[in-house]
Amino acid sequence: MEEIRDNLIARITEAEREGWLGEVEGLRISLAGAEDKLAQIDQRGSRAIDLGMPSRAAGPVHSAMPAQRRT
């Protein structure tokens, strides 16, 4: 997504230089959408995710494997 944003910025610069005013407006709309999407991604990445894992203070951890018998 960052690569898309960077490409849009470069295309806006080129369109402004060439005088393509209609193209500039369309690219700016696309750039705003890309920046919004990046902001959403950043917000999701900053949230802590609770996996429901017990803490060490919860007590001893027992293996799901049965104990081996000695013969």
Helix percentage range: 55-70%
Rg of Cα set: 26 Å
Structural class designation = mainly alpha
- How many strand segments? 0
Largest sheet: none
Strand content: under 5%
Number of helices: 2
Q: Based on Cα principal axes, name the global outline.
A: rod-shaped
The SSE string, one letter per element, is HH
- Summarize model confidence as the mean pLDDT: 81
Detail the poorly predicted runs.
Answer: none
End-to-end Cα distance, whole Å, is 61 Å
Q: Would you mind describing this structure in some detail?
A:
This protein is mainly alpha-helical and 71 residues long. It has a domain at 2-44. Helices cover 61% and strands 0% of the residues. The chain is built from two helices and no strands. The chain has helices at residues 2-18, 21-46. Helix 1 runs antiparallel to helix 2 (21-46). The longest helix has 26 residues, at 21-46. It starts with a helix and ends in a 25-residue tail after the last helix. The model has no long low-confidence stretch (mean pLDDT 81).
Features:
71 residues; mainly alpha; rod-shaped
Layout of strands and helices, then pairs:
Elements: H1 2-18, H2 21-46
Helix pairs in contact: 1-2
Short structural summary:
By secondary structure, this protein is mostly helical. 61% of the residues lie in helices and 0% in strands. The termini are far apart.
